Amino acid sequence: MPFAETPAGVTLHYDETGSGRPIVFLHGWAMSGRVWRFQQRLVDDSRLIFLDQRGHGQSSPSEGYTVQDFAGDLVSFFDQLALDNAVLVGWSMGVHVALQAFPALRSRLAALVLVGGTPRFTTADDYPHGQSPLEVKGLGLRLRRDYQKTMGEFFRGMFAEGEMQGVQYQRIVHEIVMGGRSPDPDTARQSLQILSVVDLRDQLPLIDRPVLLIHGELDKICPASASAYMADRLPMGRLKVMEGCGHAPFMTRPEQFNGLVREFLADA
Fold first, then answer.
1. By C-alpha distance, which of 50, 28, 54, 30 is closest to 39?
2. Which residues neighbour 196 within 8 Å (Cβ) at sequence distance 6 or greater?
3. How do residues 158-200 score in pLDDT, each as one tens digit?
């Protein structure tokens, strides 16, 4: 069970399989590297690395949970594993971390895959592609009242109506949820602040690497228009919208998702 220690004293857990070009996977808020369970099939000619971010999964908790903290951990992780010519795959909050860390990792990255992401989670006068700030505040309040119930509702809300059959949902619960570990309530509430305050729109024109954006058509957490916004501003961005999918298409349609990633990597 491999771990890496950052200069800030955070112990980061990760799993890896295969060899070749490294592909580093970043999970979303309140999840863990376990969410990428069905992407292990991408192992052909690649070294797949599934990272638990600080306070999530089996990584140690910390006092800070800003996007700068998460990005700093990622840069330290790349240093310790001497990763180069890598592909960075981020989902949801992991997209924020990838965008924040890009300037420091630029020379070590060959490409990025951004899934169900947005440069800014909440809406603004000049950015309609997000959730109301009041919705994020309400989620924080619900976490305080009933953590387990709220987390369960959030997880179920990631999937669109009719996106999958009951058997498939049970498989996701068994292989991803039950096999993982939820963050403690304080960690979940603190890291939720990223969704309230982070705005990385200015970073987009600076990302001079091929970027594949994948978004579920029916995503209710981050609308697909957010990825369209990013694709228009990334110098080498291309967008693939997965029809009938919600916030986690890599879980519900893994074969289609993995095919899109394979095709992109072959071109990149």
1. 50
2. 121, 122, 133, 136, 137
3. 999 989 887 888 888 878 876 667 888 999 999 998 888 899 9
